[in-house]
Design a protein that fits this description.
- The protein has about 150 residues and is of the alpha+beta class.
- It has one domain: Hotdog Thioesterase (Thiol Ester Dehydrase, Chain A, Roll), CATH 3.10.129.
- Helix content is about 15%, strand content about 45%.
- It contains 1 helix and 8 strands; from the N terminus they run E-E-E-E-H-E-E-E-E.
- The chain has one helix at about 55-75, and strands at about 25-30, 30-40, 45, 50, 80-95, 100-115, 115-125, 130-145.
- Strand 6 and strand 7 (about 115-125) form a beta hairpin.
């Protein structure tokens, strides 16, 4: 198995800059996936030096998608599919991270039903939870372009 430090995030996610909100996939097992993302100085969803709620939600969805992309590419050896957010529930934002802060995100897999994946996601900064949500994500038939 390839080490997580050697996996380019573009191998498991179809998003590209400036709409890429995961820097690294740092852990995967059947129940838990972890990612990181350092809030950039400028860009989409950065306003007045902080990463806004929409960016946090997209980061959570991309973290969940990184799990699926890893499974497709490195376990099943099939093309990664493009997906989308089906719903966001129980969104809780304690604070918005500042530019330069490192988001450490944990995705808890709940179940997969007919191609719809249910996850709970928690975003931390410095080990302190700052945001969480329950997500439903779905895949399309479109394959990711490399």
């Amino acid at each position: 198995m390839i080490g997580f430090d050697r996996i380019p995030i573009g191998n498991v996610l179809p998003q590209r800059a400036p709409f890429l909100f995961v820097d690294k996939l740092v852990h995967y097992d059947e129940a838990v996936t972890r990612t990181t993302f350092r809030v950039p100085e400028a860009g989409i969803f950065v306003e007045n030096g902080v990463f806004r709620t929409a960016g946090l939600v997209e980061h959570m969805a991309q973290s969940s998608a990184a799990r699926i992309g890893y499974i497709c590419r490195y376990i099943l050896h099939v093309p990664v599919k493009v997906g989308f957010i089906g719903s966001v529930r129980k969104l809780k934002v304690e604070r918005h991270p500042a530019v330069g802060e490192l988001l450490e995100t944990t995705v808890y897999f709940r179940e997969d039903i007919f191609g719809i994946t249910l996850t709970d996601v928690e975003v931390c900064c410095g080990g302190v939870p700052i945001a969480s949500a329950s997500l439903k994500t779905a895949l399309t038939d479109k394959e990711m372009e490399l």
